[in-house]
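Ops channel
N.P.: pipeline sanity check, posting one input/output pair.
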């Protein structure tokens, strides 16, 4: 499974983090496999691991997702690889960029930009606890509009099968440091 290195890839897979603000500008995607250096494990479930790592000489932070494909049926694996290709070509400033994709027959690996920010759920809980007003109407509307833009990009992706974005809610929305 490879991809055209000239393509402008962006996105994540299944358990995505929707970024409610632009992820910023990053360098073009790499066409070869680069060395990742583990910083910390972010999440792990059966068959899926997500890690924060550094990449390249500039040590930029990236998210490395590894999805076990060995236990999938051939049809499930082919569908997952097809979705990964579509996601790698989906362009939106509201989704992390996919820098690299690879599949070795047993594991699908996606490397995407790290989006610094805070989970919307955490911001709302903090606001309630501290009785602050982070989520003013204008800020709340901006977050909703940015999430809708991310979902529009996912739903507009050219795919033979529909893309499934998973849960959308405060627990699954990352608000960037820039708002």
């Amino acid at each position: 499974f490879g991809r055209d290195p000239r393509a402008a890839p962006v996105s994540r897979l299944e358990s995505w983090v929707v970024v409610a603000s632009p992820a910023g500008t990053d360098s073009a995607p790499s066409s070869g496999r680069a060395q990742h250096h583990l910083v910390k494990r972010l999440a792990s479930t059966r068959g899926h691991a997500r890690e924060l790592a550094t990449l390249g000489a500039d040590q930029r932070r990236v998210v490395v997702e590894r999805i076990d494909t060995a236990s999938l049926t051939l049809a499930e694996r082919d569908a997952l690889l097809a979705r990964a290709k579509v996601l790698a070509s989906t362009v939106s400033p509201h989704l992390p960029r996919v820098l690299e994709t690879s599949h070795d027959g047993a594991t699908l690996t996606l490397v995407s930009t790290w989006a610094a920010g805070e989970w919307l759920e955490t911001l709302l809980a903090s606001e309630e606890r501290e009785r602050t007003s982070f989520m003013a109407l204008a800020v709340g509307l901006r977050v909703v509009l940015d999430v809708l833009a991310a979902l529009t990009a996912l739903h507009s992706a050219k795919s033979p099968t529909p893309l499934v974005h998973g849960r959308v809610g405060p627990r699954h929305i990352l608000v960037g440091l820039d708002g």
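N.P.: looks fine end to end. The helical segments are 74-88, 120-130, 137-155.
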